[in-house]
């Protein structure tokens, strides 16, 4: 067997001088919560990153096709982001929003200019969960309604309110967190009732939202949450026009439409800067996190001035939200995405990848579905293409074997049978070829 070779890359990792991998694993076991999940039977220790690559303690290079869970957007330790973050760190690290600071103001202006319609006011927080929690509060305050609709198979975060929005039993604990939240049928063209061959699938799935409003709510709702493409749920792309129909039902019932762009924003889908634009809708509230800071803890709720004013009835405060260092990182990320044409790169390399996945699908019957947009892609594994029995063990084998061959990918989907490939947006076509070669070997060995 020919072992695939990573594309050449001119970077020498620093010699690693820290504690051994075993010592780190022991400390982690003793001093960290057992609730933390580690990838791989034999967990990997990553000590350095440069653009789309990461290095383990022995200096071995891997192609990082999961980007720290879709968070490294422009590349690990991108030099310009580092420079801007360092410059800000050296003069002022923290001050809070009780004083004026240029970074937060300039960054909010830049972000607002990237948004369509009246989406022009930002509230900065530190994580996607917090952003969704705040969006829910705003929707309830603004509309005076309480009920919220979200989608089955969604992931919106791990704090109580976001766990309520999330609809995967694997991520939900047994305590009260979903009061007033109703989950509509997931518009899944692969596993759902209506497939890609049905041009009306979008409106058929959205009808369930109308039913929930009629039968599960008082007829009025505060809002509707949806990821633009479901991420944790397995890179699930909705049928065309789904969000258009969904938004119509929600708005008729007095609700606001909230797009969770935590994974799909900032050009990742290739054709558009924001994922919701691929469905030709403009939401009332957008929540963003992950890739916006390229690793800096940075998230935001972006909405209209009118909706934002709902939060002025009391004092609302967030200590780290809008931190100067995070905002400097966020500004640099926006600049890099434009300057380096990363949205276009997502489109081009995403197409190369998708063509590669389709070739693999022709070769390996275990691949039931390949899907995605730009660099937000997924491969769903099934034991039988008719019954669609999830091939989760096999998925795990591919995942482990890819790592051995130098490729880091993610996995997800409710059944754990979807390979999630969402690399930093700077990957090259040589990286894409490497990925396909690795996957070809891993599938061939099943
Ligand atoms: C779509 C989506 N929304 C929200 C979140 C929660 O973000 P965080 O982990 O920053 O709280 C995630 C995290 O994976 C996500 O994928």
Question: Can you describe what's shown?
Answer:
The protein is α/β, with parallel strands linked by helices and 446 residues long. The protein has two domains: 21-70 and 344-444, Aspartate Aminotransferase, domain 1; 79-339, Type I PLP-dependent aspartate aminotransferase-like (Major domain) (Aspartate Aminotransferase, domain 2), CATH 3.40.640.10. The protein is built from 13 helices and 15 strands. The strands form three sheets. Strands 4-10-9-8-7-5-6 form a seven-stranded mixed β-sheet, with helices on both faces. It has a four-stranded mixed β-sheet with strand order 1-2-3-13. It has a four-stranded antiparallel β-sheet with strand order 11-12-15-14, with helices on one face. The radius of gyration is 22 Å and the shape is globular. Residues 127-129, 132, 155-157, 227, 231-232, 260, 262-263, 289 line the site of pyridoxal-5'-phosphate.
Please render the helix and strand layout as text.
Blueprint (H helix, E strand, L loop, with lengths): L20 H11 L14 E5 L2 E4 L4 E4 L2 H4 L8 H13 L10 H13 L6 E5 L2 H16 L4 E4 L8 H6 L15 E4 L16 H16 L6 E5 L14 H11 L3 E5 L24 E4 L10 E5 L1 H4 L15 H16 L2 H22 L3 E7 L2 E6 L10 H13 L2 E2 L1 E3 L5 E4 L7 H16 L2
Parallel strand pairs: 3-13, 5-6, 5-7, 7-8, 8-9
Antiparallel strand pairs: 1-2, 2-3, 4-10, 9-10, 11-12, 12-15, 14-15
Helix pairs in contact: 3-10, 4-10, 7-8, 11-13, 12-13
The chain binds pyridoxal-5'-phosphate (PLP).
The site of pyridoxal-5'-phosphate has 14 residues, from helix 5.
